[in-house]
Amino acid sequence: MKNSTILLILIATNLIGSQTFAQAIFPLDENGEIVYTEIVKVDSIKAKDLYVRAYTWFANSFVNAKNVIQLNDKEAGRILGKGNFDVLIGIKGPEF
């Protein structure tokens, strides 16, 4: 427990002294906005099924997915969206 407390203090001191929490955890673009992009190759699932899963994620994650989706090309299997949603980060443990 003592080691974890010391580690937490060192991390917190580093975050406060050098950068904000968001900068330490998330990738930021030149405007300081959090941007996350990832391409994952999946051989075990058909492209059509991946497209349906991605579209379903947009529909479930945003109030109005049509306002978020900027490119929707079903034939090419591409969806591009830009939106905002809340991310809650917490630390759980008996010492907190």
Keywords, separated by commas or semicolons:
mainly alpha, 9% strand, 96 residues, two-stranded antiparallel ribbon, 2 strands
Helix content: 40-55%
Query: What is the residue-mean pLDDT, rounded to a whole number?
Result: 75
Strand order, sheet with most strands: 1-2
Number of strands: 2
Question: How would you describe this protein?
Answer:
There is one protein chain. The chain is mainly alpha-helical and 96 residues long. The protein has a domain at 38-96. The chain contains four helices and two strands. Strands 1-2 form a two-stranded antiparallel ribbon. Strand 1 (69-73) and strand 2 (78-81) form a beta hairpin. It is globular, with a radius of gyration of 19 Å. The relative contact order is 0.10.
Summarize the structure.
Helices cover 43% and strands 9% of the residues. The protein has helices spanning 2-18, 21-25, 47-61, 65-68, and strands at 69-73, 78-81. The protein has a two-stranded antiparallel sheet with strand order 1-2.
Task: Chart the SSEs and their pairings.
Elements (H helix, E strand, L loop, with lengths): L1 H17 L2 H5 L21 H15 L3 H4 E5 L4 E4 L15
Antiparallel strand pairs: 1-2
